[in-house]
Structure formats: C-alpha cells, structure tokens
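Pasting as-is:
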Amino acid sequence: MTISLDQTIAQKQHNWVSTLLKSQAFWVFVSIVAACIFLSFATDSFATSKNIFNITRNVTFTAIIALGMTMVIIIGGIDLSVGSVLCLSSMILAITMHAGFGLEIGIAAAVLTSLAVGAFNGVLVAYLGFPPFVVTLGMLSIARSLAMVASNNTVVFEFGPDQGRLLDLGGGAWLFGIANPVLYMIGLALIVGFVLRWTKFGRHLYAIGGNEQAALLTGVPVRPIKVAVYMLSALSAGIAGIIQTGWLGAVTTNLGTGMELQVIAASVIGGASLVGGIGTATGALVGAGLIEVIRNSLGLLGINAFWQGTFIGGCIIIAVAFERVRQMRSSD
C-alpha cells in the first residue's frame, strides 16, 4: 500500500502532538501558564515588570544547577552536595578576589574547586562503588565546612579591584534589559539540551540510566562517564555560585543551604525519573520555574511562607504519580 506525502506529514504531526501531550514537562509548563494567568488577576503586583524581572532572575540559580542534576539523575545517580558546592565555590571566588586577584583568576579558582569536588564524588561512586547518596551526603557537610574554614565563618563583601565587574556580571542586564543570569541560564540550557539530544555522550547517559550492565556490555565507558557527569553537576553549582555572588554582592557560609532539595525537586517535577534513563534540559527549566512561581505567589497571596515545602512536596508526589501512570500505560 502506497502512502501519500500528505498522509506521511499527517502521521508525523500526529506523532509530534502525541509525544508532546505525553511529556511531563509540557504539562508542568501548562501549569505555570495557568498559575501566572490566575495570579495576574488575583493580585495587582504579580504581573508587574519588577516582579517578573525578579521571578526570572531568581529562578536561574535553581535552574542552572538543575541542568547538572538532571544529567546525574538520568544515569540513575543523585547529588546532594550541590548547595554546599555552590557555597564553597562562591567563597573561593570571594576570598580570591578579596586578596587582590582579578575576576578571571577568581572565576578560575571557583570553577577548579567545583570540578575537583565533582571528580572526588565521581571517583568514589564510579570506581570504588560507593552509593551516590552516601558520598554526596558526606560532601554536603565537607564542602560547607571547607567554606567556613576558608572564610573563618565570616561574611565576605569586598572583592578587590574587580568588584564592579563581578557585580555587573551577576547583577547587570546587558541585552534588552534581560537580567544577565537569565541569559546564562538560556545559554547553558541550550548546550545541555544539545548534548543530551544530539551527542554520543548524551546517548550514553540514557543508556547507563536505562540499563547500566547492558550499556557496559555494548562498550559504553560507564565509569569515566559517571565521573564526568558528577563533575558537570558540581560545575553547574559552581557556575550558579559565581553568578549568585555577583548578584548578591556578598557571600555567607549559609549560602545555598537546602538548595539541593529544590534542585532535585525541579528535576523530578520537570520529568526526570529517579530510577534513571529519563530527563531533559527543558524539564529542568520548567520544574525550576514552577517552584519559583509557587514561592513568589505565596507572599503575594498572603499565604504563610512555611507552606512552601508543602506545595513543592505535593508537586513532587504528583510528578512521581504522573510518571508511574505513564509507566503502567506503556506496559499495557
């Protein structure tokens, strides 16, 4: 039976729509849009340019780290140390610049620190067989302790001769009035999305998460890839720390406390499966977006901020339930 060109196009359009409707990230995005429409009518301050600017800027720090966390979750791992790595990288940047070194040296020191932490995590997980939960839980404590030692548990707010450049890096708006952190987030999301969708490295991540033993038997270099993924996760936290330092203009040793839970929540809400093999860069962004909209809306609606954990936890449970239902349907 010959299939016409119109039938082929119609079939592709049907498959595209079907895939979109099955996407958890799509429904999370729909939820964000619905929430924004509701809040625009329910409050006078949500749809203001200042509030939208704050939402888009605030979401970037969670979203950037969620991009790295999503890659870890795709291979079936977890990284609980990202909040502390953000703090440590920020502190290294701050004390390096406070000592009189330039912005480039400070950024290099922060990036190398985060990569070293990620490599340590990755080696213990990939080559020594330590459980990721235990390794990264230990690093959560170690990295924050090192930040306290490096700064003598003090606030650093003087960044030497390049202080203006650092503040402009994180707090400026170089293009069309869009906050710089948003531009960095978009750029990193495009890179991660391209890697996951179009590169051999990305295919290997999904293969490892789907069936690690099968991936190993087919020649996938599982151990080096795991180390690389944990380094990328820590690097994403380091980058977020650098940007957040420029935005805040100061670094304290409680920076990033509890952030690992928000990042994991963003990844899971966006469709990443904690059993591995599933996750996208788009999902990380929309998951972080929903969390920030929830956080922002509580204050505007006069709801006690202590309810934030309840709402986010509820979103995680709904996301996992959504994934479970999808798995049950696919197995039928």
